[in-house]
Design a protein that fits this description.
By secondary structure, the protein is an alpha/beta fold. The protein has eight helices and five strands, in the order H-H-H-E-H-E-H-E-H-E-H-E-H. Helix 2 packs antiparallel against helix 3 and helix 5 packs parallel to helix 6.
């Protein structure tokens, strides 16, 4: 289950996740992940080759590696990775929380072999959508520059991006909010924290629609 920083308070905000040169993982986050890994290793010693313990240990180590790589990428002034122009992108994730992005990237990379590109603010996300034409956009609502609803409106107005499915992923489960964004043009709305299987089902549905139709 992917946890929401607003709901649980355990995730470090994006400002704290800015790593210093030579230290891709901030010390606070490194300590938390190392504690989880250490606990899982002790369980492994006691329980032997328990499958659940092995999965926890593997996921924690993988998440640490992914976050370290993501935070080590140079960023330009608008929150877009400098190497973005050369990256292939199946899914564009507009999300200002680095930990949330890393968890989703790990999930979709491992389970569906999809490539993700991140924008950590709304305007950068709009720009990347126009240049990369992703098959799916995952959109957080609380962004540092503009609200996610404005991102949807701008993407829907542009002929270059109006066709791209948008799935909102937010901790706001207010029915009126959900209805408003679906009316604006969002394909689906998932609330954090979300279950893995329903999340993957939504992604699968969109990716199947975008898959080329084979000629008989």
């Amino acid at each position: 289950m992917i946890t929401d920083s607003e709901s649980h308070g355990h995730q470090v905000n994006a400002a704290k996740l800015k790593a210093a040169p030579g230290d891709h993982l901030p010390q606070e986050l490194r300590a938390q992940l190392d504690a989880i890994i250490g606990f899982a290793e002790r369980l492994e010693m006691k329980s032997g080759a328990d499958e659940n313990v092995q999965q926890i240990l593997s996921a924690a180590r993988g998440l640490r590696d992914v976050i370290s790589r993501e935070l080590g990428k140079p960023q330009d002034g608008d929150g877009t990775p400098e190497s973005a122009a050369n990256e292939r992108c199946d899914v564009l994730h507009i999300e200002d929380d680095s930990l949330s992005f890393a968890a989703v990237k790990l999930l979709l990379g491992n389970k569906r072999k999809l490539t993700l590109l991140r924008a950590d603010n709304g305007r950068a996300g709009i720009a990347l959508a126009k240049t990369h034409h992703p098959k799916l956009i995952l959109l957080d609502l609380t962004l540092p520059d503009i609200h996610g609803s404005e991102v949807i409106e701008q993407l829907q107005k542009s002929p270059a991006t109006a066709h791209i499915p948008i799935v909102v992923v937010s901790g706001d489960a207010t029915p009126s909010q959900i209805e408003r964004l679906l009316v604006l043009g969002a394909r689906n709305y998932l609330t954090k924290p979300f279950e893995v299987e329903p999340f993957l089902a939504v992604v699968d549905d969109v990716m199947q629609e975008s898959a080329p139709i084979s000629k008989v």
